[in-house]
Design brief:
Layout: E1 6-10, H1 14-24, E2 32-36, H2 39-46, E3 53-57, H3 65-75, E4 82-87, H4 92-100, E5 105-108, H5 113-132
Parallel strand pairs: 1-2, 1-3, 3-4, 4-5
Length: about 130
């Protein structure tokens, strides 16, 4: 992982972008965040950026989170980043479907910046641990 973790956030809700960016760019995390409000924007960003994580909202108009995963699979044989599905209505069934399509994590959205910082910190540590043990 780079010194500055890089995240792509795909979400159609401006408020969720605001909360996520406050958490990810907090001094505790200091992440670089690319924002996309639809799948087409996210795919365009991925042509020039390889993030450490892609956070994908499950419920979006036109192309939802699962369909976005299907499109990613058409482009990448193996994702060069971790995919975290992100939803206020995350269920066990949705998570199972997402992981079958290539998602690494399923996370329930929180409107608490502090709670989101904790979740992001945990994911960044998990991603860094295998590399640190080498």
């Amino acid at each position: 992982m780079k010194d500055e973790p890089v995240i792509l956030l795909l979400d159609d809700d401006d408020d969720d972008h605001h909360i996520f960016n406050l958490a990810a760019r907090s001094p505790a995390l200091n992440c670089k965040v690319y924002n996309a409000s639809n799948a087409e924007q996210a795919l365009h960003i991925l042509k020039s950026v390889t993030p450490d994580f892609v956070f994908v909202d499950m419920h979006m108009p036109r192309i939802d989170g699962i369909e976005f995963l299907v499109r990613l699979k058409e482009i990448y044989n193996k994702f060069p980043f971790e995919v975290a599905m992100f939803s206020t209505g995350m269920t066990k069934e949705l998570c199972e479907e997402a992981t079958k399509k290539g998602a690494t994590y399923c996370i329930r959205k929180s409107s608490s910046i502090d709670e989101l910082v904790k979740v992001l910190m945990k994911l960044l540590i998990e991603k860094a641990l295998p590399r640190m043990s080498m």
